[in-house]
Design brief:
The chain is of the alpha/beta class. It is built from eleven helices and eleven strands. A hairpin with a 2-residue loop joins strand 1 and strand 2. InterPro entries: vWFA_dom_sf.
């Protein structure tokens, strides 16, 4: 074989071998690909936990969504919201509320029970600060102090006979008020047949009230106050006016002459006497109505035997004393 033919044979053999190698490689790749399973994705389950801030934001968004479109409500209408007339109050038994029909023994028992219960002391302690007080040499102390002065012509005359002028009476009242502490409450009542008061209510012993009280005493604490139609008169009117202020201490100036002014049928007035028993019964009923029992000190001028005994009984009834001038 010549060299040229041998070269061609060798080339063909090399080409054939390369073709065979390529075919075998393709076969193997296709076979391997056919046997490989499709990929499967797997892994642990992860739970996403929202942070507190995100939860709050979600709630805000939900609330905003809900209130953005408010629901519509059907309007309500009524012909008459309330009745025009309230039912009438039941009739109360007036006899059961009439203290004038209560026996004296029952009043005394009720009075003692009220004192023993401590309600009077509790009411007294709810207002005012205690201060020492002195009036015509009588000393005591209280939180709510009332001065009651009888300025009738007979008292002024008897006081003057004992060297006590109306100006002295006025000055004693002014000095008592000026000596009170600012937390103490005070009142002043003037009476003859009618009554007149410095103030409708108790006044705190502040500087401005002390000044006003002094001016009132100098200009008003004299003469005979006007008697109002249908009102109480005399000592009963004074006791009622003083008790209305709910004091725990009273100083009373009087001559002990107890009488009531009564209109005569043909005109004019008469002044019949009343007994100290009547006055004390009236005072007991005031205690029951007001719920207070103050100590009562009496300053009396030129007292007769009946007046002295009666005022002593009255003072003892209210745990006080009598000083006779």
């Amino acid at each position: 074989m010549n060299p040229r033919s041998r070269s061609r044979s060798t080339l063909f053999i090399a080409l054939a071998v390369q073709v065979a190698v390529v075919l075998v490689s393709v076969f193997i790749m296709v076979r391997e690909d056919a046997l490989v399973e499709p990929p499967a994705f797997s892994g642990e389950r992860v739970v996403s936990v929202a942070r507190p801030e995100e939860k709050r934001l979600d709630r805000v968004r939900e609330m905003s969504r809900r209130i953005s479109k408010p629901r519509s409500f059907q309007r309500l209408a009524v012909e008459q919201a309330f009745q025009n007339e309230l039912p009438s109050m039941p009739a109360l038994p007036q006899d059961a509320l009439d203290l004038n029909s209560v026996e004296d023994s029952m009043l005394a028992d009720a009075h003692a029970s009220l004192s023993g219960s401590g309600l009077m002391d509790l009411a007294s302690s709810l207002a005012g600060k205690e201060s020492a007080a002195e009036f015509f040499g009588v000393r005591d102390s209280g939180r709510r102090i009332v001065i009651v002065v009888n300025t009738s012509a007979s008292v002024v005359r008897k006081a003057s006979a004992r060297g006590v002028s109306i100006e002295r009476l006025q000055q004693e009242a002014i000095a008592l008020v000026e000596g009170l502490g600012s937390g103490t409450l005070f009142g002043i009542v003037q009476f003859s047949q009618g009554t007149k008061s410095f103030s409708e209510f108790m006044a705190p012993a502040l500087v401005k009230n002390k000044v006003a009280a002094a001016e009132w005493v100098r200009s008003e604490l004299k003469g005979n106050p006007k008697v109002l139609p249908g009102s109480l008169v005399g000592h009963e009117a004074a006791v009622a006016a003083a008790m209305a202020l709910q004091p725990d201490l009273i100083f009373l100036v009087t001559d002990g002459s107890l009488n009531r002014r009564t209109a005569k049928p043909g005109g004019g007035y008469s002044y019949p006497k009343i007994s100290f028993a009547e006055l004390m019964d009236f005072a007991d009923r005031q205690v029951m109505q007001r719920g207070v029992k103050p100590r009562l000190h009496v300053v009396g001028f030129e007292l007769g035997e009946v007046e002295r005994e009666g005022l002593e009984r009255l003072a003892r009834r209210f745990n006080g004393s009598l000083r006779e001038m």
